[in-house]
Amino acid sequence: MTTALLFDLDGTLIDSDPLHAAVFIEMFAERGQEIDFEFYRENIHGRLNAHIFAELFPGEDAEAMADYKEAEYRRRLKAGQEPIPGTFELLDLADRMGWGKAVVTNAPRENGEAVLEALGLTNRIDTLVIGDECARGKPDPAPYAEGLRRLGADPAASLAFEDSPPGIRSATGAGLKTIGIRSLLDDATLRDAGASLTIKNYADPHLAPHIEKLKG
Questions:
Q1: pLDDT tens profile 57-79
Q2: In this structure, which long-range contacts are made by residues 70-79, counting pairs with CB atoms below 8 Å and at least 24 apart in sequence?
Q3: Digit-coded pLDDT (tens) for 141-178
Q4: Which residues are catalytic?
Q5: What is the DSSP letter of 33?
Q6: C-alpha closest to that of 122 among 160, 81, 163, 155
Q7: What separation, in Å, do the N-terminal and C-terminal C-alpha atoms of the chain show?
Q8: What is the spatial distance between Cα 45 and Cα 120, in angstroms, rounded to a whole number?
């Protein structure tokens, strides 16, 4: 079995939370409700769309609302987006070492493909795992287990990178040591969810010892 790096997408490879939050804020405003970024952080971030819309918009067509929200997000996503600092350098190292690389996300496939294209990462990732295409999405371990299966990777010799408690629980549940990315949440919140370490981005020097261990 091989070594692999498995990444969440939103908030982990791209700082997309402000854009997602803006779309949600507008959708609530259209229904006469006011929310702010803090509400997004506490009630929406990291969750499956099916759960979000069923809970927050009872009586409406949750699937149609989710489709609209994600289409609006993609419409606002611009080509040439910058990934989280240090992403390209970490992927370059993975290529030199022959490590597998996966993106594991609860986002719809259209979003995953659009974000990777906007970041210039489409050809840098070996496989894209979508939570809704697995038996269960995050926080269940199924998406990360599927990523490991596709890559033929050993969880004990691999790392996951996540920015949300549901994602961290999914990755650790699949046996992966998980590094928390502090794009939105703080160190304590990510560690409480199971992260072994938290970093601001992939250029953080605290990540280096964990990468060195993977080299053997």
A1: 888 999 999 999 999 999 999 87
A2: 70/107, 70/108, 70/110, 70/111, 72/23, 73/16, 73/19, 73/20, 73/23, 73/111, 74/110, 74/111, 74/114, 76/19, 76/22, 76/23, 77/16, 77/19, 77/114, 77/115, 77/118, 78/118, 79/117, 79/118
A3: 999 999 999 999 999 999 999 999 999 999 999 999 99
A4: 8, 10
A5: -
A6: 81
A7: 14
A8: 24
For residues 131-151, b (16+ Cβ closer than 10 Å) or e, as one string?
Answer: beebeebbbbbbbbbbbbebb
For residue 202, which of 81, 45, 92, 47 has the smallest C-alpha distance?
92
Whose tokens are 């699949």? That residue is 174
Range 102-118 burial, b when 16+ CB lie within 10 A, else e: bbbbbbbeebbbbbbeb
